[in-house]
Design goal:
128 residues; mainly alpha
């Protein structure tokens, strides 16, 4: 089966128009566009998605820590996918994990925190 058969080409076009249109799209619009575009051009859009998710969690959901945590978990997932595609991109993963770790500390999620700290240690070691 052709990979492009699974892609909603209208959604891809709308995402590109949202990013390239006149005026700067909101964080919400950028996140939505990057989510779509990361499916068709992961090397180009996964880093942008990871960074935008962090900003979105921090600036739009600072008062909703559970939602912010879910967005940061999605940021980590995007960074993991990027690293799987380009093993040399440990920097993106370490950054996303550190941002995720920050909220885990605030929410006192010790078990998850230990797992994230171990993953950070592995990612830093792999980068060397």
């Amino acid at each position: 089966m052709n990979h492009s058969a699974n892609i909603d080409h209208h959604a891809v076009l709308r995402a590109r128009v949202a990013l390239l249109g006149s005026g700067k799209p909101s964080l919400r619009e950028r996140v939505a566009a990057y989510r779509v575009l990361a499916q068709v051009s992961p090397l180009a859009y996964l880093p942008l998605l990871s960074a935008a998710l962090w900003k979105y969690s921090r600036y739009e959901f600072a008062h909703q820590p559970e939602t912010a945590l879910a967005l940061r978990a999605e940021s980590v997932a995007a960074a993991r996918r990027m690293r799987a595609l380009e093993p040399g991109r440990s920097d993106l993963l370490v950054s996303a994990l550190a941002d995720y770790r920050e909220l885990l500390i605030l929410l006192d999620r010790q078990e998850e925190l230990r797992a994230v700290e171990e993953e950070i240690t592995r990612a830093v070691a792999d980068a060397r």
